[in-house]
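Q: Given only this backbone (150 positions), what sequence would you predict?
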């Protein structure tokens, strides 16, 4: 199959309403797949019964007023995808609460478009909290972990 013939096939597939074409010759097999356009995940909206009071207090005072709030640096999702705490379902998690991590240690995997992306820590310290459940979709810049850089 020459390059011009392949270009003709690609143009034909692009102009038609087919999602996949497979061509097999004696020594060559070509599979062409068109992906569906990106669709945003539905967002869950939660309505409060009463609006929260506005505050001009500094963030440190607000954090001190909430004793349950973990102290530390947030490690955030660099991409949109699905969060996995281990490399496979039968493997141990990369990290758990109380583990010491160094900058560059793998904390989790985010699957995006069938690619497994290792998410590394950008801070050394102790894992204080894991904010996402395994198999949960995550958004860009969503907090995943809190690490105490002690």
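A: Predicted residues:
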């Amino acid at each position: 199959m020459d390059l011009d013939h392949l270009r003709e096939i690609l143009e034909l597939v692009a102009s038609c309403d087919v999602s996949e074409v497979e061509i097999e010759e004696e020594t060559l097999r070509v599979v062409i797949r068109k992906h569906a356009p990106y669709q945003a995940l539905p967002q869950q909206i939660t309505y409060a019964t009463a609006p929260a009071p506005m505050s001009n207090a500094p963030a440190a005072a607000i954090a001190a007023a909430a004793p349950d709030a973990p102290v530390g640096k947030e490690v955030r999702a660099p991409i949109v995808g699905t969060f996995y705490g281990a490399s496979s379902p039968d493997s141990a998690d990369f990290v758990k609460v109380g583990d010491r991590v160094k900058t560059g240690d793998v904390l989790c995997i985010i699957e995006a478009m069938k690619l497994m992306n290792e998410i590394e820590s950008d801070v050394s310290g102790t894992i204080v909290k894991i904010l996402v459940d395994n198999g949960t979709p995550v958004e860009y810049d969503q907090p995943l972990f809190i690490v105490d850089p002690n």
